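hey m, so remember when u said the tokens were messed up on ur end? i reran from scratch. heres the input so u can diff it against urs
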Amino acid sequence: MACLLLGSVLTVRAQGAREALLFGQNNYVGTARSVAMGNAFTALGGDIGSIGINPAGAAVNSWSQMTITPSLSIYGGSTSYDGDPRYSKNRTRMYLPNVGAILNFKTYRTSGLKNISFGFVMNSTGLYNTDFAASGRTNRSSFTGYLADAATRKNLSPSQLEGYSDLWPASAAYCAGLIYPATTVAGAPYISPVQSKDPSGVYPMRGAIDQQYGLARSGSKHDMVFNLGFNISNRVFFGANLGLVSLEMREDEYMRETAVNTADFPVSLEDDGKTIDGEYAGMKISSTYKAEGSGVYGKFGLIVVPVDGLRVGAAVQTPTASRISELRYYDATARYKGASEDWDAASPDYTYDYALSMPWRYNFGLALTLGDRGLVSADYELTDFSNMRYSERHSNDEGTFQESNDEIQECLGMTHYLRLGAEYKPLSTVALRAGYNLSTNPAFKADGAQAYWHAASLGLGYSSSGSFFCDFALRCKINPTEWHYPYPTYISGQDSPEISLRSRLWDAVLTLGFRF
């Protein structure tokens, strides 16, 4: 099985490894302090942003606090089409990655259970902020040629395509006159206007076309966390979270093809009273995909202070039991030179509900505090995405998603996530912070290769002599190169376009808070 996880939603596919990874990955944000220190808080706690990482962190401080954290996210991406650089795009979004409060109650005991804390935190764990395009010229293959080949391989009749079969983009293309039978013989293979009627059945391209592919993704994923924490003799802290997940995502994707020389593509078509007897000029096929979901999980954590200055922490998060509702639809437009109007077609809306079990997560941390002057901290997080599973919501039919679950096991693997952080206080009211993240990418398991993403952060904090405090952080995340394939190779020896995407994400985070 080829693991083209970052392939196109223009090609028909069921729920697969690509969607599971988009929904299952977490991108912690937290408060400006936790972001500035690389979110290396498994052994530290004491910050509202740490609760989603280790529930025990809420009980570390003896005071109550509340925070609000607005943020600015700036996405930048550059693409190449078959190695030829073409496009750079940027997109900026404002959002609220963190807001929360911790209420800490003292028992007034000198040992044993000294504090009980209750917390509520809304924390962003995913921001879908992608926008890129790429273009190039080819005479090897076309998207319409791929759809014609796919309809032929599925042995679909014209009536099936007109009725919108499960090969929905091909149906939209057929209704727009972008694919049609090569001959009038029943069961004849389909071709597109850019292909010649080669007797060998190969149907090669008749000329060159310009292609443009684009994808824009937006949306977010948030965890609403209800926390309970306990402080035992200021040496042992433990806590538990009930996490409620909500997500929404939208992908808008298109493929545009334009004839370099329309005289290379003469065509004659007649359908529903419309007649084309001229030259093919180009087409556009687009898709819209929307997903909404919710889920629930539990998380349990522990922080131990064996000796002054040393902290050890660990946390485990159960699989998230989630349910997803999705909607897809396609549009197709064909342009012909000399025609009075374009040929358009749109598919009906396709909706589906299903369940998705997201993976276990394990956190381990170690921290050294340097009196009141500073600290250093290190975290390790392990997640095995191959354990994710799709299932039906309304039946126990395990065969429905067998192919998708097999794809997850084959294409996804473990993620090893290292987080480092440091803080130094030159003054009692001012803190300087820095952090670094390194994570493997689970989507490269099938290729036998490994890719990494990196993030570096810096921050500044101010704490008044009263209750007010504020923090600022700037983080840059550099993603590994992604490879996108708008459609599979369908002609032997004539590879489909390969689009590479290099991207990075800047986050500017500000936290305003009060202790009481």
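this time it looks ok to me. The longest strand covers residues 274-304. if urs says something different then somethings off w ur setup not the seq
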